[in-house]
Specification:
The longest helix has 19 residues. The strands form 4 sheets. The protein has a two-stranded antiparallel ribbon. The protein has 8 helices and 8 strands; from the N terminus they run ααββββααααββαββα. It starts with a helix and ends with a helix. A hairpin with a 2-residue loop joins β5 and β6. 45% of the residues lie in helices and 13% in strands. By secondary structure, the protein is of the alpha+beta class. It is globular. The mean pLDDT is 89.
């Protein structure tokens, strides 16, 4: 679990998925006079290995991450982000997004195994990126329990950060209403008043 997933009280069972989706920071807004710097925690195979090791997703002696493995990891992240960008109700109907996600998921197969008296999903792969199958397992478990519907992408185009919606009705649109919500509402207010002149 990362500092961010703890700070924003993301449930443990979705923490790796949340962190993986947010390993790409596409925010490009100005806040308090400072331009937010975009970044990518998975800038290369080495960075992906470090990211996985920090979360206990990379086994010792797993070997190097080959370029094809790295490309599959980036495809998975991109398609998870596209899926989370859809409204929860739309996720079930958007065949294009589902098809892309299914293709990415195929690279990270899971197998059922008995562990500690209960059935769990484990990676079928045995290579350097096998640990990303745990992210896929969180996606699966979240879809079964319904918690995945609360994992959303901020509606602000200049943010696109994934957040966990803790509101009772699960209708939040922005990662932070005090930041992104305020910015959008202020912009809309100014546009309405400019148009009325």
């Amino acid at each position: 679990m990362s500092k961010d997933s703890r700070k924003f009280k993301v449930p443990d069972e979705l923490a790796n998925l949340y962190d993986f989706a947010n390993s790409l920071d596409a925010r490009h807004f100005v806040h308090r006079g400072t331009q937010h710097q975009q970044s990518d925690e998975l800038a290369g195979p080495r960075e992906l290995g470090s990211w996985m090791a920090q979360r206990g997703l990379m086994k010792e002696g797993a070997g190097k991450i080959a370029p094809a493995m790295f490309d599959a990891a980036l495809r998975l992240r991109s398609d998870i982000r596209a899926y989370l960008a859809c409204d929860a109700a739309e996720r079930r109907k958007n065949e294009r997004v589902a098809d892309h996600l299914n293709k990415a998921l195929a690279s990270f197969p899971l197998a059922a195994a008995m562990q500690g008296g209960r059935l769990v999903l484990q990676p079928s792969r045995r290579d350097a990126v096998a640990g990303l199958s745990h992210v896929v397992a969180e996606l699966y478990e979240g879809s079964i329990t319904g918690t995945l519907d609360r994992l959303k992408m901020c509606a602000a185009e200049e943010c696109r950060r994934v957040f966990f919606d803790r509101s009772k009705p699960a209708t939040r649109r922005w990662c932070m209403s005090t930041l992104c919500g305020n910015r959008i509402k202020t912009r809309s207010y100014r546009e309405r008043h400019r148009d009325s002149k």
